[in-house]
Automatic annotation (TrEMBL):
Transmembrane segments: none annotated. This is FAD-binding domain-containing protein. InterPro entries: FAD-bd (IPR002938), FAD/NAD-bd_sf (IPR036188), Geranylgeranyl_reductase (IPR050407). It comes from Candidatus Schekmanbacteria bacterium RIFCSPLOWO2_12_FULL_38_15. One of its GO terms (molecular function) is FAD binding. The lineage of its organism: Bacteria, Candidatus Schekmaniibacteriota.
């Protein structure tokens, strides 16, 4: 039975929404959490679910210790009881098998399981008295009075629109946020592109590498040369200690281009590395559609706050979604007690979320692909780094620079042997975000 009015209504029960709801309930607020999914922890949306353990990722240092995800600076521990795998290498491999490998003693990231994470957060939220509405689609949040927000929603199978009042509403409905569409701040966002992703969870893959995150660079991996294929070792939700990880293989491509299923099936059967997959069995599939927008810099409007991917450029990662959810829960509780506003949350977001900073989007996009070179040129360039290991992590914000520096250190040789590649490489690194996307489509 729903209340007439809540202190907080959260739309979306991913890591951001669950963490906001749990934190607000711990602070004594009455909370309603709604999600369009029937089974909130079930994962049908593609996500590598790597914890980026590089120091200062989103301004904090994260690790998994004793069944908890630790945030050193926030002093936060989030229950995580599943298996996890330390990924030893981040590998970019060309159609000709040439590589650029990053590694470091801490591992390049930690692959964990999102379903286990969400189940733990949901359990905690429900124990704290959060009301949970499943199969419910949030439509809109409106500031109707100085201290009152109306949230409209409908059941997944119903056209009847209902509403509920609250003192603060939280848009935690992910990267394609419906709620953010209704905010003034949405109009200031710049749109880049829509990507879709398909994922296969595979057992029985014979990769020659240790547990790793592998990006298959170059156009020769898919029939029409579009998009990016990558894979990592990770555990299923029901994995036991000592179980071998499975492989999560993903194909991401601009939405107007080729079919993800045809691309991924072709890669498995006819790709340059099909021998790794000859005995592989698909045990689960997932997919995602991603709209790339610039970040919302001021993610609080009246008493509506956007957290996690909703105000972000593509992704905050699960670890970021939880950080911002935690902060939003705390600051909202404080605001409802003292009317202090959401500045602390907004400042934290702008200070710690890298994609809010000038130049970060360009930097990350440059790391996604090197689509400005053909496969012969890519094989040549990666041939120069094939026998070396570079210090680095999986992070979108730092790995592109490691890659760039690795190639720059070879540039004198490239200029002599293949001046046309040197010229393209240097020109690419002067491009802006839109030009990079055009070249990497
Ligand atoms: C291909 C890919 C790889 C990734 N790899 C990693 C990685 O390695 N590590 C990592 O940490 N992160 C990774 N991410 C990003 C990660 O998935 C997100 O950053 C994180 O899930 C964001 O959490 P969120 O709670 O903001 O959004 P989401 O997890 O998207 O949750 C949003 C929730 O809102 C619900 N919802 C959506 N719209 C509505 C609506 N209108 N009404 C009600 N409910 C709604 C959805 O059902 C969902 O439960 C990856 C993402 C993709 C696509």
């Amino acid at each position: 039975m729903l209340k007439n009015k809540y202190d907080m209504v959260v739309i979306g029960a991913g890591p951001a929404g669950l963490m906001t709801a749990k934190t607000a309930a711990e602070e004594g607020l009455s909370v309603l959490l709604m999600d369009m999914k029937r089974d909130i922890p079930r994962i049908d949306r593609s996500c590598c679910t790597m914890l980026i353990n590089e120091v200062s990722t989103h301004g904090d240092n994260c690790s998994i210790v004793d069944n908890n995800i630790h945030y050193e600076k926030l002093g936060l521990k989030v229950k995580y009881t599943g298996q996890w795998a330390k990924l030893e290498q981040s590998i970019r491999i060309t159609p000709g098998g040439k590589k650029l490998i990053m590694s470091n003693p801490n591992g390049v990231s930690i692959a964990y399981n999102k379903e286990v994470l969400l189940r733990g957060l949901l359990e905690d939220a429900e124990k704290l008295g959060v009301d949970v509405l499943t199969e419910t689609f949030g439509l809109k949040a409106e500031n109707i009075k100085k201290d009152e927000v109306r949230v409209s929603f409908r059941g997944n199978r119903s056209r009847a629109v209902k509403d509920v009042k609250c003192r603060v509403a939280v848009a935690a409905d992910g990267v394609n946020s419906q709620i953010v569409l209704g905010l003034e701040a949405f109009r200031k966002r710049k749109f880049f592109i829509t990507f879709r992703v398909a994922s296969y969870f595979l057992e029985g893959v014979e990769s020659p590498f240790p547990p790793a995150f592998i990006i298959f660079v170059g156009r020769g991996h898919t029939p029409d040369g579009n998009g990016a294929i990558y894979m990592l070792d990770k555990h299923l939700a029901d994995a036991k200690p000592g179980d071998k990880p499975i492989i999560d293989l993903m194909y991401a491509t601009p939405v107007i281009k080729s079919s993800n299923k045809i691309g991924i099936d072709n890669f498995l059967k006819n790709g340059k590395f099909s021998h790794w997959f000859r005995s592989a069995k698909v045990v689960h599939t997932a997919a995602a559609t991603l709209n790339f927008y610039t970040c919302i810099q001021e993610p609080a409007e009246g008493n509506i706050i956007a957290v996690g991917d909703a105000p972000s450029f593509i992704e905050t990662y699960c670890q970021g979604a939880m950080m911002y959810g935690y902060k939003a829960g705390k600051v909202s509780a404080q605001h409802l007690k003292t009317n202090c506003g959401y500045k602390e949350y907004t400042d934290y977001w702008k200070k710690t979320f890298e994609y809010c900073w000038p130049g970060e989007i360009e930097k990350a996009l440059k790391g996604y692909g090197i689509g400005f070179l053909n496969d012969d040129e890519i094989d040549y360039l990666f041939g120069l780094t094939d026998n070396e290991i570079y210090d680095g992590y999986v992070s979108e914000n730092t790995a592109p620079a490691v890659m760039k520096d690795a190639f720059m250190s070879k540039m004198d040789r490239v200029k002599k042997e293949r001046p046309e590649i040197a010229e393209k490489f240097l020109k690419f690194h002067q491009s802006n975000a839109h030009e990079v996307l055009e070249k990497t489509k």
